[in-house]
Amino acid sequence: MKAETIIGPGSIVEKPERSYLGIRLSTPFGGMFAVVTKALKELRKWSKENSLSEEGPYFVRYYHCDMKDIMEVEVGLMTNSGLVGEGRIKPGSLPKGKYATLVYRGNGLRGNQALMKWAKDNGITFEPLVADAVESYTCRYEAYLTDYRTEPRKLLWDVELSIKLAD
Prior knowledge:
This protein has helices spanning about 30-50, 110-120, and strands spanning about 5, 10-15, 20-30, 60-65, 70-80, 90-95, 95-105, 140-145, 160-165. By secondary structure, it is an alpha+beta fold. The protein has a domain at about 20-95 and about 125-160: Multidrug-efflux Transporter 1 Regulator Bmrr, Chain A. Strands 1, 2, 3, 4, 5, 6, 7, 8 and 9 form a nine-stranded antiparallel β-sheet that branches. It is globular and about 45 Å long.
């Protein structure tokens, strides 16, 4: 059975600052999803060992998204624990502000393309991490709203895509 891609409407929402623990990575786009999956498993194991597995959601944050070069990403778990992490698991925060957002299920590329088109059609610009860099974002992330323990098939997860707007 092929999973159907479902894409919700784009909207602008105000988000508070959110603390998290995460693992930041640099990886070529080719093979990135295997690297991200491995890091997510590491973070999930650590969060379970530290009684954080019920917090969340888990997410992937994209700092630089140049598919022809190195992708700079971070896997994370939103938490209010106050823990400082361990080893390569470090604390961070998603900044407060206005975000373009939508929820999709299925094909992530289609979900991302839909939000980018909606933003362009509505004259919305995103806040870059590095000015003039190819697809550089102060905060762009995909939060996994579906619990991976109850639905292991990623193509059936509800995913919230959010990108911070330029002021």
